[in-house]
Design a protein that fits this description.
The protein is an alpha+beta fold. It has helices at 5-32, 42-49, 53-65, 82-112, 154-160, 165-175, 188-201, 243-263, 268-275; strands spanning 40-41, 69-71, 77-80, 115-122, 125-132, 147-149, 204-207, 214-222, 228-237. It folds into two domains: 5-80, Arc Repressor Mutant, subunit A; 86-278, Beta-Lactamase. Strand 2 (69-71) and strand 3 form a beta hairpin. Helix 2 packs across helix 3 (53-65) and helix 4 (82-112) packs across helix 8. The protein is elongated, with a radius of gyration of 23 Å. 31% of the residues are buried. InterPro entries: ArsR-like_HTH, GAF-like_dom_sf, HTH_MetabolicPath_Reg, Tscrpt_reg_IclR_C, Tscrpt_reg_IclR_N, WH-like_DNA-bd_sf, WH_DNA-bd_sf.
């Protein structure tokens, strides 16, 4: 018998609540693992969660299948999987980069007088995690936590340029290349050419691609895995745009990016491949 629209709506609500509860329970399981107790059995998890063993067993098997838990072959115990290690590495890298970058970017802000900031990669977006506002009366502002898609703006494109090609395809298929200003690149082939140019140069420049009247000059940052997961940028009003200022920003950002990358343990070969003669 077919359900009425009202009945179907109620069923969907219950299903959504069930999914949310399952996620909460799965996260609670992961939080049981500690430095002192890196391994737990289904029975131990069931007892501490005060939940039936069959339910815990299903959740644990799902977490194993997704890589967040792994079975210990010599016992019936489980430990945290490589997915958790990957996530912790991302956080650690970001914290380490931020700590290294903070005094260098603050000094650069003082030297240039313009807004200087650090972004990290988060899915199909860039997120600002460190920002030093310019000292001029007329200045651009990049607040902490600011997000934008990877296809627009030098700070975003300089990270997108070093990602696998399927990252760009995912971006286009999921959100499209929407026009944010009249300068936003909305043609996939044109964006691809732009990304190739960025990789060749080792930096990116944009003018009013996300915000009218704003210019950004950006360089990628390599992490200890030789991956580009963040970038550093200088942003300033378009009215102060000169080739001299752009050249100075490129020189200063490259120097800082290389220094940070070296302190992150990046190989000399990767640094040379990324910045070439600037090394």
């Amino acid at each position: 018998m077919q359900k009425s629209p009202k009945e179907a709506f109620i069923v969907n609500i219950h299903m959504d609540k069930s999914k949310v509860n399952s996620v909460k329970k799965a996260l609670a399981i992961l939080e049981l693992f500690t430095v002192n107790e890196p391994q737990l059995s289904v029975s131990e998890i069931s007892e501490r969660m005060d939940m039936p063993r069959p339910t815990i067993s299903r959740l644990v098997n799902t977490l194993v299948g997704e890589g967040y838990l792994k079975r210990i072959p010599a016992s019936r115990n489980y430990s945290l999987g490589m997915k958790v290690f990957h996530l912790s590495t991302v956080i650690t890298n970001t914290m380490t980069q931020t700590k290294i970058a903070a005094p260098l970017l603050r000094d650069l802000r003082d030297k240039l007088g313009e807004t200087v900031y650090l972004d990290v990669l988060d899915g199909c977006e860039r997120v600002c995690v460190l920002s030093f506002e310019g000292i001029h009366l007329l200045r651009t502002v990049v607040p902490l936590g600011q997000r934008s898609y990877l296809y627009a703006g030098a700070d975003a494109k300089v990270m997108l340029a070093y990602q696998p090609e399927d990252k760009l395809n995912d971006l286009i298929s999921s959100i499209g290349l929407k026009s944010l200003t009249q300068n936003t690149i909305t043609d996939p082939e044109a964006l691809q050419r732009e990304l190739i140019k960025i990789r060749q140069n080792g930096y990116a420049i944009s003018a009013a691609e996300c915000t009218p009247g704003s210019v950004a000059v950006s360089c990628p940052l390599l992490d200890q895995n030789n991956q580009v997961t963040s970038s550093i940028s200088v942003s300033f009003p378009e009215v102060r745009l000169t080739q001299k200022l752009v050249d100075r920003c490129i020189k200063e950002l490259r120097s800082i990016a290389i220094l940070i990358s070296k302190q992150m343990g990046v190989s000399e070969k990767m640094i040379e491949l990324t910045w070439g003669d600037a090394c």
